[in-house]
Amino acid sequence: MKSTERHHPAASSRERLVEATRELLWEQGYTSTTPAEIRARAGVGQGSMYHHFPTKADVAAEAMLRNSAELERAMDDYLKQTPSPAGSVKSYLSKPRDGQKGCRFGRMTLDNAVLENERLRGPVADSLAWYRRRIEHLLIDGQARGELRDDFSAEAVAATIIAIVQGAHVLARADRSQAAFDRVIEGGLTLLAGLERRA
Amino acid sequence: MKSTERHHPAASSRERLVEATRELLWEQGYTSTTPAEIRARAGVGQGSMYHHFPTKADVAAEAMLRNSAELERAMDDYLKQTPSPAGSVKSYLSKPRDGQKGCRFGRMTLDNAVLENERLRGPVADSLAWYRRRIEHLLIDGQARGELRDDFSAEAVAATIIAIVQGAHVLARADRSQAAFDRVIEGGLTLLAGLERRA
DNA sequence: GTCTATACCGCGATAGAC
DNA sequence: GTCTATCGCGGTATAGAC
What contacts A11, CB < 8 A, 6 or more positions away? Predict the structure, then answer.
């Protein structure tokens, strides 16, 4: 009920609609975001929105696809900074995050309306799976280089690493505190250290 | 749009309303659950519902409080079966769960309407914190008995254990598969094993 | 304590002019 | 491509009889 107007006046209407939707999906989720809010934040008129996108689900689907592309690229860039595979996994876990805002994808999974629409669920499932495989390959690489023990399933542990971040968001939101988030990450790093090859 | 009528004819109207709300909150979350659905599943009339509870938030708050009481008791019962503290933590992780249905509490944290109402958020935060402390004490106990290493923060790791379960639900829902849930748990058990005192 | 009827509002989408 | 005006529907709650 406050800052509904944050125009991006440089871009096209269509572009502004997608960006506004991306923000609102993150802040409020899918069901709670109304076409009127999207329109207001994008600074476009009522009819204009329906000219570019037939339904709310269509704007949302485009916003989610853009999320997939951007976040996967961002993760690649982020991980490029760390040379060692095991270090990259630690780095992924301890990456600074706003615990209460949540993961753009994870946030969607509790909304039945998203899960029931394949065009909305698809990008969510695909991106989370992409993250998992990315971590999995880092773990396998770490095992190959002898940084990590080789007696565990990289696939399963990678899934757990992703889940830890998702769960941290859940606890941070419930507790309304970043500290709850950070505590989960601290424990995650502790658990991860147990996989390092013993000296 | 299907099985809306599952009366519990034995109990009082008020009782049936609370139970119906508990089920619907689990299946659909708070915002997506309508008073009409609650009324229909409980098998009570329109006015009757508003006689017992002034607003939807009031029924929901009562349902959440009951969830807290019941689930905390259930966890106590469940953990009583395992003698060793470290075994109890493993047991908590590997407890059979419907991955796609989610945790009754975790499911609520992605709904802004819940977080903005202290009477709804309170039981969620309290119960998740209660779970965390329960696990924390098991870990401390395990450290004291020498089952577990003593060089880690039981508080942080306990938070991570809870987060793993919450995150597993997120991934299972995104992937629409129990396998995604089970994989996270498998990785969690692997990580947990790294905390055991070395032979 | 339970019922039916009804009111209000905002979401999601459409119509049609410019 | 953008605008204003409008519509149908369902969520949430109230009124008032029995």
Answer: A19
**Can you give the distance from the CA of residue B64 to the C1' of nucleotide C16 in angstroms?**
49
Judged by C1' against the alpha carbon of A32, the nearest nucleotide is C11
DSSP chain B: --------TTS-HHHHHHHHHHHHHHHH-STT--HHHHHHHHT--HHHHHHH-SSHHHHHHHHHHHHHHHHHHHHHHHHHT--SHHHHHHHHHHS---TTT--TTGGGGG-HHHHT-HHHHHHHHHHHHHHHHHHHHHHHHHHHTTSB-SSS-HHHHHHHHHHHHHHHHHHHHHHT-HHHHHHHHHHHHHHHHTTBPP-
Q: Going from the N-terminus, what domains does chain B have, and what CATH number goes with each? A: 1-54 (1.10.10.60), 65-193 (1.10.357.10)
pLDDT per residue as tens digits for the range B142-188: 999 999 999 999 999 999 999 999 999 999 999 999 999 999 999 99
In this complex, which of B153, B184, B198 lies closest to A163 when CB atoms are compared?
Answer: B184
Rounded Cα gap, residues A195 and B11, in angstroms: 53
Give the one of B102, B108, B157 whose C-beta lies nearest to A187's C-beta.
B157
A41: helix, strand or coil: helix
| Residue B196 φ then ψ, to 5° | -70, 145
The distance between the two most distant Cα atoms of chain B, rounded to a whole number of Å, is 66
Shortest-distance nucleotide from B59 CA to C1': D12
Measured distance CA(B14)–CA(B63) in Å, rounded = 11
Answer whether any strand C atom is within 7 A of the Cβ of A130.
no
CB contact under 8 A, B180 and A191: no
- A45-84 residues near strand C (Cβ < 7 Å): 46-47, 50, 54-57
What are the pLDDT tens digits along chain A (199 aa)?
334 445 556 689 999 999 999 999 999 999 999 999 999 999 998 889 999 999 999 999 999 999 999 999 999 999 988 889 999 999 999 999 999 999 999 999 999 999 999 999 999 999 999 999 999 999 999 999 999 999 999 999 999 999 999 999 999 999 999 999 999 999 999 999 999 998 6
How far is it, in rounded angstroms, from Cα A47 to Cα B89?
Answer: 56
